[in-house]
Specification:
223 residues; globular; 6 helices; 30% helix; alpha/beta; 3-stranded parallel beta sheet
Length: 223
């Protein structure tokens, strides 16, 4: 496994633990607005923690009664999200990094005619240049890690980032191992609210929480 830092919020109980409980609970999941709001809340908390890794400059600000020395982020931040389940999670980051540029990548599974085998396809991307910038790549579910890898490689068509933060809500152990092998060392940190032990034959995270996109926005017709 490459030398990539992993931050797992589940190692220390916090408010994230409460929101994760509600995201997983089948008796609460039937409220899409609450589900989306909990994704957003975790995004906000994660954004705050990631903000501690940014670079800052000091400047003097005039107040009604004098001057105060304040800090301002100097990183050029790009919030990049894998559609569609990432949208409410993305909004949490945007609430805090309100001056960030934004990128969106459509990655989806196309299942083969028989069995549970699938290819991950990129259909759409809208992004600024990312050369020398700090990219926060957002996807709430990391099952195999392949969508995240392809999303990152698609973004590389627009430059090479100075720093890369991978943000997820639930990741499988297999996805973490895979991403630590394929993502660049030295610039990458992976942040997640939980790491689950396995994926099933359909490549869903176990125990996971189900299909985050469907729970946030309703079931889709795959035909």
């Amino acid at each position: 496994m490459n030398n990539i830092e992993i931050i797992n919020f589940a190692t220390t109980p916090s408010l994230v633990s409460r929101y994760m409980r509600e995201l997983r609970d089948v008796n609460i999941q039937n409220d899409p607005m609450r589900f989306r709001n909990n994704l957003k809340r975790i995004g906000e908390i994660m954004a705050y923690e990631i903000s501690k890794r940014m670079d800052y400059t000091q400047d003097k600000v005039q107040t009604p009664l004098g001057y105060a020395m304040c800090h301002e982020i100097t990183n050029q931040i790009v919030l990049a999200t894998i559609l569609r389940a990432g949208i409410p999670f993305h909004q949490g980051f945007l609430e805090f990094f309100d001056k960030a540029e934004n990128a969106f990548v459509s990655a989806y599974r196309r299942y083969k005619e028989k069995g549970d085998q699938f290819d991950v396809l990129i259909e759409y991307m809208a992004t600024p240049r990312i050369d020398g910038k700090t990219v926060i790549l957002i996807d709430p579910m990391l099952a195999t890690g392949s969508s995240m890898e392809l999303g990152y490689r698609a973004l590389l068509k627009k430059g090479t980032p100075a720093r890369l933060h991978i943000a997820s809500v639930i990741a499988s152990r297999q996805a973490m191992e895979y991403l630590c092998e394929v993502l660049p060392e030295g610039i990458t940190t992976i942040w997640t609210a939980a790491i689950d032990p396995d994926i099933n034959s359909h490549s869903y995270i176990m125990p996971g929480l189900g299909d985050a996109g469907d729970l946030a926005y309703g079931e889709k017709d795959d035909e």
